[in-house]
Structure formats: C-alpha cells, structure tokens
Amino acid sequence: MKNSLNWSIVFILSILFIGCKKEEKSPSYHKGDLTVLTDESFKSVTEALAEGYMINYPDTHIKVVTKKEDLGFLDVINDKERLAVMSRDLSLEEIKTYEDQVDLKFLPARFAADAVIFIVPKNASKEYISMDEITRGMQSENKEFIFDGTNSSNLNFVAQKLKKQPKELKFSVISGNKNIIEELSKYPDKIGVIGLNTLSRPYDRASQELRDMVKILPIEDKGKQYQPDSYGLREMKYPFTRVLYFLTNEGNFNIANGFIRYSCTQLGQMIVQKEGLQPYNIYKREVQMR
C-alpha cells in the first residue's frame, strides 16, 4: 500500500513537471528576446518598428544588429538568428536553399518601399543622372560611384537592377551611408549611392542635417525624370525603388512572427510612414466631395 502511494505521488509530480516544461517552451509573441539583422541602409526603420513593438509588449526585448544583407540571409538559413530584413530578390537557387534548410515555404513579409538614391554635394551643378550614365559609370575605371561597401544592400540592388553580378561592377567605397554623405564634398567628381532611409525621416534633426549636405539626383530614363518621393515609390516609377521584407526561420507564432505581423499592421505601417518611407500595406486615399 505504501509503495503504491509513493508511486502515485511520483506519477503526479512527473505529470506536473512535464506540464511546466511544456508551458515554458510554448511559443510566445509578447515576451522574450529577439535579434533582428538588418543592413545599415534600412536600420532606422527597423529600429523604429522594434521600439514600437517593445512599447506595445514590454516583456519583449528586440535587439537590432547591423549586418550586410547577404550575411544576414546566411545567418537565417543556418539558424544562427531568427529574423533578417532583406531588399533584393533572391535567386531560384537561394529560395531552394532557404526552403530546404529552414523547411518552410519562401514567403517574404513585405512591409515598406525604400530606394537606392544617388547624391552629390549640395552646391554641385549636376541636377539629374540618367540610367545610361549609371550603366556606363559602373563599368568605368574612374570608379565614380561611391558605395558603402561590398555585400551591401545598395550594391546588390543596383547590380540586380543592371542585370550584373556585384563583382562585375567598378566602384569606390566609403564605409557607411552616413559617412558617404559627410565625406562626399571631398570628392567633387564622385556620386554617392546610399539608402533613402538614411536621411528620410522628415522630422528628425539628424536626418535634416544630412539632407542639408547633399542633393538627391532624379533619375532620367527614356526622356522622363523620376524622384524617390512618395509617388515614385508608391507607383514603383522611380527605377531604384526596392521593397523591404522580413525573412524568418521561425515556424511557429513566436516573437519573430509576432514582430512581423505587427510591422505589417496599420500601426506598424504608420511607423514606416513616419520614417519617410512608403508603407507597403496602406496607401493614402483621396476622397472628393461634390
């Protein structure tokens, strides 16, 4: 009888212990830690979304880490981190690798339209740049275009747009989008190539100071000029418009997928808009009263 009672107690305690362990391991979108990998070019909007999420869910802690886009992709498929922000289109081979290693369908969570922009010092005489100039310049030994580094999102996207591999292009390097803006005046014969989000925040003093230092060149293509403004991004008219999206290896509804959902809801999209980018999922609607 005593042995039976002892075994009954052990059995009950085992059930309780297993139940507690299951509860500890159950997915949660509203508490826990998450690292988001992002290229420096769109770090600002990623940080703003992370701050918004943590305000709504105080038990979460999201750390935004700057990493080159291609390296962020590798960390996700190799399960080193759960979430990365991407901008370029993946190749069919990369999509297959993602699906094979992560064991999920490739479903990019698009949340913002950003752009790669071409800049010159504020006092430069140049007023616009043509697609032909860009194509020729990226093949020139003069290396007149300054990028923020190899493997950067800006270089990858321009290469993809020109139907080239990054290694086929010729360019100069100054590390960091902000550094390009601040040092561009030292190189009057060069053109900086940066991410729009670096200086797009309309009410931010630091962004305003950066905007005051340079001039954004419209892109001329087939006789028309296109600006990286809300219309150019929303209608995808600006030739170097790019869509930012999240890529995760998280198969359940934990903090990574919670953050993705938040970023794509109206609240998250309003944050994107305040960053000076075009929200992907909401658009301004004009109503005419007669």
Task: Write a brief caption for the model.
This protein is an alpha/beta fold and 290 residues long. It is 39% helix and 22% strand.
What's the SSE blueprint?
Layout lengths: L1 H24 L5 E8 L4 H14 L2 E8 L2 H9 L5 E4 L5 H11 L6 E13 L7 E2 H7 L7 E3 L5 H9 L10 E2 L3 H7 L7 E5 L9 H7 L2 E3 L2 E3 L2 E3 L3 H5 L6 E8 L6 H10 L1 H9 L3 E2 L11
Parallel strand pairs: 1-2, 1-3, 5-10, 6-7, 6-8
Antiparallel strand pairs: 3-12, 4-8, 4-9, 4-12, 4-13, 10-11
Annotation keywords:
alpha/beta, D-Maltodextrin-Binding Protein, domain 2, 10-stranded mixed sheet, 22% strand, signal, PBP domain-containing protein, 3-stranded mixed sheet, PBP_domain, 290 residues
Structure overview:
Keywords: Signal. This is PBP domain-containing protein. Pfam families: PBP_like_2. The protein is α/β, with parallel strands linked by helices. It has two domains: 31-112 and 242-279, Periplasmic binding protein-like II (D-Maltodextrin-Binding Protein, domain 2, 3-Layer(aba) Sandwich), CATH 3.40.190.10; 115-241, D-Maltodextrin-Binding Protein, domain 2 (3-Layer(aba) Sandwich), CATH 3.40.190.10. It is built from eleven helices and 13 strands. It has helices at 2-25, 43-56, 69-77, 92-102, 131-137, 153-161, 177-183, 205-211, 230-234, 255-264, 266-274, and strands spanning 31-38, 59-66, 83-86, 109-121, 129-130, 145-147, 172-173, 191-195, 214-216, 219-221, 224-226, 241-248, 278-279. Strands 1, 2, 3, 4, 6, 7, 8, 9, 12 and 13 form a ten-stranded mixed beta sheet that branches. The longest helix is centred in the N-terminal third of the chain and has 24 residues, at 2-25. The radius of gyration is 23 Å and the shape is globular. 38% of the residues are buried.
